[in-house]
Design a protein that fits this description.
Arc Repressor Mutant, subunit A; about 170 residues; RNA_pol_sigma-70_dom; Rna Polymerase Sigma Factor, Chain: A; 2 domains; mainly alpha
């Protein structure tokens, strides 16, 4: 079992110095806090070994600085990719048909909704749907059949409600 008191004393005695160091390194207090927190977590997980080092604070400082640099490199790589490929195209909002289908699906019983989603959206065969839902194949087929019929009725009603008055 790790030496809790020893780690607590080490943490209290070194946290401000370490945070100040990583803050100067990154220029971002939030990034520094994240890196220091992760470094202390790793030190705690290895405390029996780390506590035996000549300078445990140096070990945590190296880990925190490497974490901070790694995050910086990741952000830099993302920025370069953004410049190279441009902004991600915005995703258009769902059409009214999609909204109607989702609303109709929400009105189905959960078992039918799950069976329809697994079969039509995920593309699983009936046998796989049965395995995932722990239901017999015949039950899955019945749920699909009843779900399709219920959806057809719900969508027909939605279409009538949206039709302009003539």
């Amino acid at each position: 079992m790790p030496d809790v008191d020893g780690f607590d004393e080490f943490y209290r005695g070194s946290r401000q110095r370490l945070l100040g160091f990583v803050y100067v390194l990154t220029g971002d207090l939030t990034e520094a806090q994240d890196a220091v927190q992760e470094a202390y977590i790793r030190a705690w997980q290895r405390w029996p070994s780390v506590s035996g080092y000549d300078d445990p604070e140096a070990w945590v400082r190296v880990v925190a600085s490497r974490l901070a640099v790694s995050r910086w490199r990741s952000l830099r790589s993302r920025a370069r990719a953004y410049l190279r490929h441009g902004a991600v195209e915005s995703v258009p909002p769902p059409g009214t048909d999609t909204v109607d289908v989702v609303a109709a699906l929400r009105r189905l019983p959960e078992e039918q909704r799950i069976a329809i989603a697994l079969y039509y959206l995920v593309g699983l065969p009936v046998a796989e749907v049965a395995r995932e839902t722990a239901a017999p194949v015949g039950t899955v087929k019945a749920r699909l059949s009843r779900g399709r019929a219920a959806l057809a009725g719900l969508l027909a009603v939605a279409e009538l409600e949206e039709a302009p008055d003539a």
